[in-house]
Amino acid sequence: MAHIIFAQEMFFPLQSTMALSAYLKKAGHTTDVAIGSPSEIVKYVEENKADLVAFSVLTSYRNHMLATVDAIKEANLNIPLMAGGYDITFMPQILENSNLDVICKGEGGDPMVEFCNALDKKKDWRNLKIGNLHIKNKKGVVNKNPMRYWLMDMDAAPFEDRDIYWDKDPYFRIVPFTQVLAGRGCPYPCTYCFNAGYKKIHEDAGMNGKEYTNLRSVGHVIRELKMLSKKYDAKDFFFNDSTLTYNKEWIVDFCKAYKKSKLKQTFSINVVIPEMNEDVCKALADTKKCRLVRFGLETGNEEFRYRTLRKSIKNDDLIKVTDRMNKYGIRYSMQMMLGLPGETQEYAMETLDVARRLTGKTGVHGINIFKPFPGLEINNVGLELGQYKASDVMAPGSVAPPTWRKTGTDNENVTTNTNNNKDVTSNTNNKVPPEIAARNKAASEINQNAKDAADDKKKYDDLFIPADEAYLTSRSVMHKTGINENQHNSGYNHGKNVFGSKEMVFYDNYRRDKLGLYILKLSRYSHVLIRFPGLRKAVEKLMELPDNKFNRVVWKITEGLLNIRVHAGAPWSYFIKYALFHAGKQVR
């Protein structure tokens, strides 16, 4: 049997790691997790004789992965190094530009098992033909194996392996919630979500996109929840599915089964507003255990929400459904984003105003500083408006899709074709294929958005110091962490030591324009402005000053107390235990 060590920077139970560990253990292999700095991980790997070191990569921790990979290579440990996850799937070029040996593009359960079976049999892993895996040979040439179909029978997957964290450190026993996934994917085409791009990668490989979104059976999910209750004394189930109510029959059956199961734990879910009809609200309320429903406002301006985010939800619908949830006594959290490409100061303020009107000053608000993670279609808007730098949002060597007609002079590797839409739609029958019509419509909407944003931008051009100076000064402070081990020498220069750092989780939106920097500073006070709108003029005065440590402290404290604490269902006893026994550990 092979011994696999998963490596990560923070003390947080990653569901992807737990899922992969379950597959590997079922196949007879052994797994462990190493947590800490690159040097700490190297020491742990040396002492525990790994046959494979694997990384489940979140964009925010990419630099830690690259630094750890470099450190393991420098230690001459002669162990294959594999990375996977959404970040890697959207940027497979990272394999050619780093010290990684293998990447997984797409689902990793079966590919990892096949790889480790080969290691166990002493096969030359550099010549393996395993679907989803890209493998670098001794000469540095990458063999790109084709993608395999999605897992269709979701009940066939083993329950996630919680022991890999539970037995690792006592901290994991005080985490106040237990993460659960009931299925995979999301049926909506929102431009700001990874799901649309992830599905498209598989569609391009010949798969049926309609089969991407899938759910386990209700009985299978309930059995897992009962196991988590009995074995791990779970207190609260946090469903990470993008939405759990798109299949109304499924969610109603789940609520009935949950009530019948006599489970004592509370649970929280993500939903989309139009899905929350009377039957769904009543079913959730009848469980008596639905602690929180999370839904997306995203932005307060209806037109901007539809045109740029491709989310066709009207504010009237938000009012109607939140009134319905209030009627049934369902507590809800409103998710929103600030710093979106094309967003203006008016749009940002409108978002905060709408959030306050819908939830009141004491409502629960999930406020996110938007970041242009790889694979998001909305990044196109920021590139075309000149608000993003291409090296921040695209991997080296990437080829831009047809709707990216303008990216500035920042990236010579990006190719564009301004006549592409015109050329491909002309045919003898004058009939436009549906996929081309949809692309043309998106291009038209982006053009209109660019014009509107350019008009709005003129109002603010003279308000602040030049964008580059302001941005670089602010950013250098945002990402300054003192002694930083997460510096890598791999040559992979995709925002080296900046884009891919944990600091980006809290502090950056990566817009390069003056208005973007203004909105970034404004976002620090978003929780304050929702609860105390009378402070708006005072906050606007602060916006005239460069971004500073005080702004970021305000954001971190208000975000922790008014958002993260509520969403995690964390009692005050958790914070006391953390302070007394685990304060030195980096948590997510």
Task: Tell me what you see in this structure.
This protein folds into 3 domains: 3-144, 3-Layer(aba) Sandwich (Rossmann fold), CATH 3.40.50.280; 159-379, Aldolase class I (TIM Barrel, Alpha-Beta Barrel), CATH 3.20.20; 386-481 and 510-552, no CATH class. Helices cover 43% and strands 12% of the residues. The relative contact order is 0.10. Strand 6 and strand 7 form a beta hairpin. The chain has a 7-stranded mixed beta sheet, sandwiched between helices. It starts with a strand and ends in a 7-residue tail after the last helix. Residues 402-430 and 459-466 have low confidence and may be disordered. With 588 residues, it is of the alpha/beta class. The chain is built from 24 helices and 15 strands. The protein has helices spanning 15-26, 38-48, 62-74, 86-90, 109-120, 163-166, 194-204, 218-232, 248-261, 278-287, 302-307, 315-327, 345-359, 379-384, 390-393, 420-425, 434-457, 467-478, 504-507, 514-523, 526-531, 536-542, 549-568, 572-581, and strands at 3-8, 30-35, 52-56, 81-84, 102-104, 133-136, 142-144, 178-180, 183-184, 214-215, 236-239, 266-270, 290-298, 332-338, 364-369. Helix 2 (38-48) packs across helix 3, helix 8 (218-232) runs parallel beside helix 9 (248-261) and helix 9 (248-261) runs parallel beside helix 10 (278-287).
